[in-house]
């Protein structure tokens, strides 16, 4: 069973690598410019008339903008969590340049080796338990620096054709680049040709004649603030040869860490050579690691652990946070297909809640949110992409995060009920949220 799981792991690794993009058309001066990197990525599928969360990924970066830790929570087609896994990455640098990355997950360890130009030259897998050497991938590049081949070998006798060479051909015309992939899987069946098109460094189309589909990508970007010009949502429409259409979207949230625009675009385009942790998530059978949140609350509508509200999973129109909660965690009210929080009309937060974490009410579509006196701290982007009609914020808030009401489309007549001259009153005026709003002094 374990060997078979490793087989699946490498098969998935190969499938993902086949989709890796290998070009970013950013000019050298522009590429050197530092921008914020995504720290939270939420992926959705459009299923039976609704957007359903499929994966929630978090990234932690070091001062060089390299990912050092990533966690991924998986959701089934009903939007229900079923397992979570974490990967840690340890880097080796020589004279400030990356030479090696060791990525350790639940089953396997992967070692990524880099050449003098900071390009991946080799990926070697090891069995995490026995230390036995596993599958290997070797990378070559053409004279212009674009990926040319991946020479792949698996030690698993389950496959009929354990050695394959994948080829990539890149053509650049102005701000447009096309990458043509060709190669077979380990059964000897063709996986290409697959043609990817990028414009101004962003992926816009993937045509896979072998599988019989075309993917079209569009983007929305932040219009103001520290993330102005950065992608907030990526939309993908996949059209199959028989006319069947699938829709996907990806939401991006940003932290404080910055890196080059080249790395930024590669993350948005899901270039596996940069977000190396995406190569695998420790492909473990969902039946072996079901996701069961620890719940200290007797109220089944709330997932509470150590007095922290981790998630509201009820379907009431009016929600009152239990008084034993002292902190509301990130994404506690984010809507999903299984727990459609867009039904909520009103949320009341009692004064016993002292801390509201960053993005606690992100993507929450409640009409009215009342935070009572007593709450002391509210984190960055607490109401990101939420569009409430009214929000009551107490004078007791003294530690106030940045961009509390950052939205993609802009507020539409939101009323902020505050005490005149209070710290939150001054913060709202200073932050001046995008869109139309009114400050009401009660």
Task: Write the topology of this structure.
Blueprint: H1 2-18, H2 28-31, E1 34-47, E2 50-61, E3 67-75, E4 81-94, E5 97-104, E6 108-114, E7 120-127, E8 133-141, E9 147-153, E10 163-173, E11 176-182, E12 194-199, E13 202-208, E14 213-221, E15 231-240, E16 245-260, H3 261-268, E17 302-305, E18 308-312, E19 318-320, E20 327-328, E21 346-349, E22 355-356, E23 368-371, E24 377-378, E25 390-392, E26 399-400, E27 411-418, H4 423-431, E28 435-441
Parallel strand pairs: 18-20, 19-21, 20-22, 21-23, 22-24, 23-25, 24-26, 25-27, 27-28
Antiparallel strand pairs: 1-2, 1-16, 2-3, 3-4, 4-5, 5-6, 6-7, 7-8, 8-9, 9-10, 10-11, 11-12, 12-13, 13-14, 14-15, 15-16, 17-18
- Major sheet strand order: 1-2-3-4-5-6-7-8-9-10-11-12-13-14-15-16
- Pick out the low-confidence regions: 1-32, 272-299
User: Which bin fits the share of residues in helices?
Assistant: under 10%
Supply the CATH architecture of the largest domain. Beta Barrel
């Amino acid at each position: 069973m374990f060997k078979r799981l490793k087989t699946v792991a490498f098969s998935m690794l190969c499938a993902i690598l086949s989709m890796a993009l290998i070009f970013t058309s950013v000019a050298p001066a522009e590429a050197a410019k530092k921008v914020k990197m995504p720290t939270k990525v939420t992926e959705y599928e459009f299923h039976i008339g609704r957007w359903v969360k499929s994966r929630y990924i978090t990234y932690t970066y070091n001062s060089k903008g390299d990912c050092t830790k990533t966690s991924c929570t998986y959701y089934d087609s009903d939007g229900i969590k079923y397992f979570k896994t974490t990967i840690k990455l340890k880097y080796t640098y020589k004279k400030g340049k990356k030479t090696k990355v060791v990525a350790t997950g639940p089953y396997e360890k992967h070692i990524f080796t880099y050449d003098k130009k900071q390009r991946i030259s080799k990926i070697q897998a090891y069995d995490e338990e026995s230390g036995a050497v596993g599958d290997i991938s070797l990378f070559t590049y053409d004279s212009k620096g674009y990926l040319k081949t991946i020479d792949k070998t698996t030690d698993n006798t389950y496959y009929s054709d354990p050695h394959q060479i994948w080829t990539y051909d890149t053509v650049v015309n102005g701000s447009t680049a096309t990458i043509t992939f060709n190669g077979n899987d380990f059964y000897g069946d063709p996986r290409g040709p697959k043609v990817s098109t990028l414009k101004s460094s962003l992926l816009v189309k993937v045509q896979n004649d072998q599988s019989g589909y075309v993917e079209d990508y569009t983007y929305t970007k932040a219009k103001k603030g520290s993330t102005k010009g950065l992608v907030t949502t990526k939309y993908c429409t996949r059209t199959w040869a028989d006319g069947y259409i699938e829709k996907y979207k990806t939401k991006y949230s940003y932290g404080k860490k910055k890196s080059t625009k080249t790395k930024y675009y590669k993350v948005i385009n899901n270039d596996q050579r940069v977000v190396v942790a995406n190569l695998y998530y420790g492909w473990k059978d969902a039946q072996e690691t079901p996701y069961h949140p620890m719940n200290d609350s007797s109220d089944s509508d709330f997932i509470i652990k150590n007095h922290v509200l981790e998630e509201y999973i009820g379907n009431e129109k009016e929600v009152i946070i239990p008084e034993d909660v002292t902190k509301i965690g990130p994404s506690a009210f984010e809507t999903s297909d299984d727990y459609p929080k867009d039904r909520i009309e009103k949320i009341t937060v009692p004064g016993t809640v002292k801390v509201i974490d960053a993005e606690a009410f992100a993507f929450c579509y409640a009409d009215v949110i009342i935070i009572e006196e007593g709450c002391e701290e509210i984190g960055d982007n607490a109401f990101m992409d939420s569009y409430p009609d009214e929000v009551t914020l107490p004078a007791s808030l003294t530690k106030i995060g940045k961009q509390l009401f950052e939205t993609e489309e802009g507020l539409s007549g939101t009323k902020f009920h505050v005490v005149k001259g209070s710290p939150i009153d001054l913060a709202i005026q200073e932050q001046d949220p995008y869109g139309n709003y009114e400050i009401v002094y009660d």
